[in-house]
Amino acid sequence: MRKIDTLIHARWVVPVEGLERLLENHAVAIHHGLIEAVLPADEARSTFEADEVIELGSHVLLPGLINTHTHAAMNLMRGIANDMPLMPWLTEHIWPIEGEFMSPEFVADGTDLAMAEMLRCGTTCFNDMYFFPDVVAERVEAAGMRASVGMIVIDFPTVWAANADEYLEKGLALRDAWRGHERITTVFAPHAPYTVSDEPLAKIRTYADEMDLRVHMHVHETTFEVNDAEQKNGQRPLARLKDMGLLTPNFLAVHMTQLSDEEIETCATHGVHVLHSPESNLKLASGLCPAQKLIDAGINVALGTDGAASNNDLDMIGEMRTAAFIGKVAADDAAAVSADTVLRMATLNGAEALGIAEATGSITPGKAADLCAIDLDAIETQPMFDPVAAVVYNASREQVTDTWVAGQRLLADRRLTTLDEAAIRARASEWQTKLAAKDKDSQ
Ligand SMILES: CSC[C@H]1O[C@@H](n2cnc3c(O)ncnc32)[C@H](O)[C@@H]1O
Ligand SMILES: [Zn+2]
């Protein structure tokens, strides 16, 4: 008998990568945070002696979900400005609030709230773009989650940095501080083509090439963005980014709702990853990202929620369903963006986009034990013919019972083990009072 830390028995296991699409009555063996083996339940019992044995008799075990685009601390602005398009939403509501309230405390409390919500829907890893990324990294470290933290750059001064050089300097210091961390990586995060000028973008390109780092950016989010750029610069934003040499396999383009066939081809040729955020695109009426067309062109498409101020949740299970439904309409084809495709977008494709697929994204021996368990015994998922279809088309995040990151059980039978739910709720309520006094529309 081999001694291991944990043995999880599940009615179904969906590894996402490998030969088997669906395994029934299997177990996942975990030792030192890594997946040691995935094997039939009986064989597992006779092979391993585990310190902890968990029986999930009516659950499906999936790789942890990867939210590839969010602004975690914006959870504190959930619901503050609704029913308006991107630019008025940003310039008349969100940026004024950020201008007044942004602080390390805001980011710490907002990130904790976001991580609590994410763990409760099976998310194990997120790609963040927000102020005080040093605080984000510290909160992630304390909570035990996995994250890719953005070295943000934007042309205007904020409480985080006064100018582009300071944003870059602070970003690079963050990278140095967290380099080699098992769960935390850093990526460049220039906000958008309309807020970052050529000079800092050229520096980012040089650094990203030299250090082989990802570049995470909102691109072609709305028709306004594209038309405005054409009018002001005589060029569409993607063409400018291409000319600047930014379109490489390190480039992560979020939104991408306005794309010509030629632009899709360019992205495919240059190995660009697309981070699809369908619910934010719908709520702000930004447009539809042609997900199936991108996939057919060979582009890696991953999934993200965007921040809770434009979604208004961080529910990756709901996001999968929306991505599947909207993907079918966009392609005018019910077979487009299938349940299996969308689950891959929410797991392995996310890991590939973030450059961490060697460590996570599928239930594969040797990878970290980043997992989530969903109980399919509920009325809402009965009868149950296919666990993958059930998760995508009719399960809800309330059915997520357990979430593990690197073998640590961060959600145990719906109880958060590293985050204090009551304290998080109390802090959110305090911020609500402060923010409501500023934003008249929210009262
Ligand atoms: C520089 S920190 C990130 C910055 O992005 C803003 N933001 C949030 N959601 C969106 C979106 O969908 N498009 C563009 N910008 C967005 C956020 O408020 C921060 O200021
Ligand atoms: Zn965003």
Automatic annotation (TrEMBL):
Alphabetic keyword roster: Hydrolase, Metal-binding, Zinc
Catalysed reactions, semicolon-separated: S-methyl-5'-thioadenosine + H2O + H(+) = S-methyl-5'-thioinosine + NH4(+); S-adenosyl-L-homocysteine + H2O + H(+) = S-inosyl-L-homocysteine + NH4(+)
Keyword Zinc tagged: yes
Occurrences of domain Amidohydrolase-related (ranges): 60-409
EC number of the protein: 3.5.4.28, 3.5.4.31
Metal-binding among keywords: yes
Cofactor: Zn(2+)
Record note on cofactor: Binds 1 zinc ion per subunit.
Binding positions (Zn(2+)): H69, H71, H218, D306
Entry-linked InterPro entries: Amidohydro-rel (IPR006680), Deaminase_MtaD/DadD (IPR023512), Metal-dep_hydrolase_composite (IPR011059), Metal_Hydrolase (IPR032466), MTA/SAH_deaminase (IPR050287)
SUPFAM superfamilies to which the protein is assigned, alphabetical: Composite domain of metallo-dependent hydrolases, Metallo-dependent hydrolases
Pfam families linked to this entry: Amidohydro_1
Family recorded in the similarity comment: Belongs to the metallo-dependent hydrolases superfamily. MTA/SAH deaminase family.
Function summary: Catalyzes the deamination of 5-methylthioadenosine and S-adenosyl-L-homocysteine into 5-methylthioinosine and S-inosyl-L-homocysteine, respectively. Is also able to deaminate adenosine.
The protein's name: 5-methylthioadenosine/S-adenosylhomocysteine deaminase
UniProt organism field: Salinisphaera dokdonensis CL-ES53
Gene: mtaD
